[in-house]
Amino acid sequence: MAASQLVQPRPLGAAASASAGSRVSVLELYDDPHSEYSAKVKVALHAKGLAWTPLALPCGTTRSPEFRAVNPLGKIPALWVTFEDGRKEMLVESEVILEFLEDAFPAAPPLLPRDALARSKARLVSRFHDLYAEPALRQLYPQVAPSVREPRVVQEAVAGFKERMSELAALLPPVAAAAAAAPDASAAAGVGGSSSGNAFALGALQPGGGLGLGDCAYPALLLYAELILPVLELGTEPGAGRGRGLGSEPRPTADNGSGLVRGDEVRGRGLEGGRGMGAVYAAHPRLWAWRQALWGHPAVQEVFSELRPAAEEWVAMKLKQ
């Protein structure tokens, strides 16, 4: 995405309810197209209908003195916030950014329910990603390159990630059995988007039953897991590669670009059989229903238009090492 491109689904600041001078006038985001945490923030921005300008890193790196001068932690995503009175502040850490967006734009589609207990549950699911799920998946990244792959490390890391997925499934409220069909069941055809809003992380506790703060981090995590686990556990290149040299099976035309998968279309995509993410989804149908709902949400589809090719190209690059 070009640094000068403006993403503006809805006029910025229309949802703000703060006093004059403290209202936000401009959002600018430093991010990385490969980054799970950048994707988390962009899902939230799209879900709330907010405009932002993507910024190129000074000198192309987070290590540059120019970037460290405004962001001492040198981390992305990083959000520049300009207020109507001219003040400018930078926020880092994806969770902090999401909480700020919710506080600054409360009238935009809410990411948190009003009930205090439900809000805490949403925050727990979101924090579980940052503290447990993503660090477990991160252990697998170095193993994608065949030249440095260690079978024992792979076995332990895959088992650890699957254990985290089991814990995650236990945090999610149940959803109707038909919507929770595993990937090898035909009932999965109807899961996703507006047709099964209660399949999101908080289900009926979230306003409108739709996407909320607890959901934003997981599309990227599950996408990377579906790409990486077939390489490491099945010994095959992931079929989700879709013509980018990562799989032999073409992209199913029935998903209309959304990534939704019918029960008869999972073969060759690392979702079938007793291993890979297919085993995780089969063991935890609630995760499969959630995955399908996430993939069908417009905010996720917008982010995937950039993230998916970047992730696939990264895996392809690592497989050549």
From TrEMBL:
<protein>
    <recommendedName>
        <fullName>GST N-terminal domain-containing protein</fullName>
    </recommendedName>
</protein>
<feature type="domain" description="GST N-terminal">
    <location>
        <begin position="25"/>
        <end position="109"/>
    </location>
</feature>
<dbReference type="GO" id="GO:0005737">
    <property type="term" value="C:cytoplasm"/>
</dbReference>
<dbReference type="InterPro" id="IPR036249">
    <property type="entry name" value="Thioredoxin-like_sf"/>
</dbReference>
<dbReference type="Pfam" id="PF13417">
    <property type="entry name" value="GST_N_3"/>
</dbReference>
<feature type="region of interest" description="Disordered">
    <location>
        <begin position="240"/>
        <end position="267"/>
    </location>
</feature>
<dbReference type="InterPro" id="IPR050983">
    <property type="entry name" value="GST_Omega/HSP26"/>
</dbReference>
<dbReference type="InterPro" id="IPR004045">
    <property type="entry name" value="Glutathione_S-Trfase_N"/>
</dbReference>
